[in-house]
Amino acid sequence: MTDDLLERVRATGLLRAGRPVVVLLSGGRDSVCLLDVAVRLAGPGAVSALHVNYGLRAEAAGDEALCRGLCEQRDIAVEILTARRPEDAGNLQAWARDVRLGTGARMATALGARLATGHTATDQAETVLYRLAASPGRRALLGMAARDGLLVRPLLGVTRDETAAHCVARGLAWREDASNDDLGFARNRARAGLVPALRELHPAAERNVVRTAELLREEAAVLDEVVETALAGRDRIEVAHLGALPPALARLVLRRLAEDAAGRLCARAAARLADVLALGDGALDLGDGARAVVAGGVLRVEQTPPGRSAPEPAGQPQSLS
Q1: How many structural domains does the chain have?
Q2: For residue 240, with 0-12 CB atoms within 10 Å meaning exposed, 13-18 middle and 19 or more buried, which class applies?
Q3: β-pairing verdict for 47-53 and 21-24
Q4: What is the Cα–Cα distance from 126 to 79, expressed in whole angstroms?
Q5: φ/ψ of residue 314, rounded to 5
Q6: Containing domain of residue 127, as a range?
Q7: What CATH number did the domain enclosing 112 receive?
């Protein structure tokens, strides 16, 4: 099992001999497995680690001690960051992720390294299912990329059960995070219910979801090129031209314009295509901080000013998106 897992990760090309990598090390089975695999593929001299102690759990000190010990045993440089959540930090999980990835990216940049996370095929399946339930559109099915700039996810082809088996076979201890079982978090509900149900349907469910996401991501790159061609490098399009496009392509064009203007994902924009085509001269809220503006038969999209929605044209219902 361990040799098979190692060869599968080696085949991704994300961890190479002598290439510097910073491992985000939580102390859980997945990150412990990743640290071991990284050392074996990249070499101990190429591997560094980052552990963030948020102080949110009674077990946090034990997690930190385990991570220190793992790195000391392998002569791996480890940075321990103690982070305390500000009162105005908002969503806890988002804050923790931003701290971890932000610190890791700065560390990796300083070392000329990649930043590796322990996301697995199980995480990928959970991500796709959660996004599909929470946000319509093809992007929900793309999941997490194996590589995104400095960030790499070498274990995306490995299930959580396999990382545990690897750790057991290699005699590696890990820590269990009880908060992962807290069903107050939507992601944990997906973990506890949806993924086990998929496994009951087919034992290779997680790998099949990962492979589907890979294929869709490749196809999405082709669609992006088609959208670029339709826009011809412009940030606007004639409404008549937009209406003449196949509906699926027109929705993608509208969403691209919205996301370029808003600087964020605009999942709801595509659903307003019919409203935009029927708009005439005027403005229409697309949601997610973007609004469509049509003047002289030409559509452009701009940011919605803070605290206000775009005015609706006469005779059109007020947007609720």
Answers
A1: 2
A2: exposed
A3: parallel
A4: 29
A5: -60, 140
A6: 2-213
A7: 3.40.50.620
